[in-house]
Fold this sequence. Notes:
Blueprint: H1 35-40, E1 57-61, E2 64-69, E3 73-76
Antiparallel strand pairs: 1-2, 2-3
Function: Required for the activity of the biotin synthase BioB.
Protein name: Biotin synthase auxiliary protein
Keywords: Biotin biosynthesis, Iron, Metal-binding
Amino acid sequence: MTTPVTTSDAVPAAGGASAAWCDRCGEAAAAGPHDACAAARVLEPPRFCAHCRRRMKVQVLPVGWAAVCVEHGEIQG
């Protein structure tokens, strides 16, 4: 069973120390600058899991969003 992850625990979109993948475009975090992805993530929820690159199920709510990776669990924002 996985535990929910809050945005403070979430991996940064554009290549934090433990991020292997960009959570917006799904490309390798080390592949180059993800400035456009970082700018878009200010307004959008993540679309890909930063740990395994799987496409996540995303639900946008009036008070935020929730994204679920089948392997790593839920991220809320």
